[in-house]
Specification:
Length: 327
């Protein structure tokens, strides 16, 4: 069992974040076991030719056979919505001894190391530089354009949902909704890992003023944490709505709604049951952001959409009136 122990005030410092670097690294699990991630199969089919130009031997070796990943490859985000390049710079600053220790922890025994890791850890500093360059190339070749905008939309929608649950139902309902195996006692958050490909070590993790960060991912079947319990506490959980990644935009079947709004606006309204930005909607519909923006403005002015700003991003969502219209 993994126990997260909360002192007075620790619950108040619990926060949510997501990480493009974590999702990039965790996506490498698909190369090991595509059957575990059926919603990523369309993406895998698209990127297979591009993988040939990358350091695939090394990228595959970043994930152990039981799908564990060295902790230093997914550092705890310093803010809720980090930038991939900033996170990768943090990875580049990892001390060489940590690189070696984290690979040993994820593979559990050096006898299980693939040859590329054995060769690389003979010079951890050079290995780290090669590793970071490989991840950077993987991100820009396979992820940043068509894949990340969809993933980003799902993660943002998850955070919006969890915020509503916390506000309306409290911490116990929030944690139970992240994973049924999570139990909140008022002072402890208990997790009993089951059904994994390798057993997790029991841990007693004291929050101790460091803040627990809750992180959604598209690459976990249940809640999990870092391998080294002495590091700043994180709890990674399955993102809500991850199955939508492989879905095509839903057809608009209500002819009256099409006649009222036109097909482009009716389709946008049907997509906005969960929050999304102009860019995310444009990627999903394969149109320009400018075209989407014009239709969103009309729907917003008609009272069918609400909008909220998060940094530089404006996210739209159906209002109750929009929900009723879609019914």
């Amino acid at each position: 069992m993994i126990e997260f122990r909360f002192a007075v005030g620790d619950l108040a410092t619990t926060s949510f974040a997501y990480s493009p670097l974590q999702e990039a690294v965790f996506s490498l699990r698909c190369l090991h076991d595509p059957a575990r991630y059926p919603h990523h199969r369309p993406w895998l089919r698209r990127i297979r030719p591009r993988l040939e130009s990358l350091d695939r031997e090394l990228l595959t070796a970043l994930v152990a056979p039981w799908l564990w990943v060295p902790d230093f490859l997914s550092p705890r985000p310093a803010r809720a919505r980090p930038v991939f390049a900033d996170e990768l710079d943090e990875v580049r600053r990892t001390p060489p001894d940590v690189v070696s220790a984290d690979f040993r922890a994820s593979y559990r025994t050096e006898d299980a190391f693939p040859p590329v890791v054995v060769r690389g850890l003979a010079d951890p500093a050079a290995f780290l530089a090669r590793l970071a360059d490989a991840l950077d190339a993987y991100w820009h070749t396979c992820l940043s354009d068509g894949w990340w905008p969809r993933v980003h939309s799902i993660l943002e929608a998850d955070l919006a949902h969890q915020a509503r649950v916390l506000a309306e139902e409290g911490a116990a309902a929030l944690f139970a909704g992240l994973d049924p195996r999570l139990v909140w006692t008022g002072e402890q958050l208990l997790l009993t890992p089951t059904g994994g490909t390798a057993p997790w070590t029991a841990a007693d993790i004291r929050i101790a003023g460091r803040g627990l960060v809750l992180m959604p991912t598209l690459f976990a079947r249940g809640a999990q944490t870092v391998l080294d319990p002495s590091r700043p506490p994180m709890l990674i959980y399955p993102a809500r709505g991850r199955a939508t990644l492989s879905e095509a935009p839903p057809p608009v079947t209500d002819r009256a709604l099409i006649r009222l709004l036109g097909r482009p606006r009716a389709r946008l309204l049907s997509l906005l049951a969960e929050p999304a930005s102009t860019t995310e909607l444009a990627h999903r519909l394969n149109v320009t952001p400018g075209a989407v923006s014009q239709h969103l403005a009309v729907l917003y002015d008609a009272g069918l959409l609400s909008r909220t700003r998060s940094g530089r991003t404006v996210r739209y969502r159906r209002t109750p009136l929009g929900d009723e219209l879609c019914r």
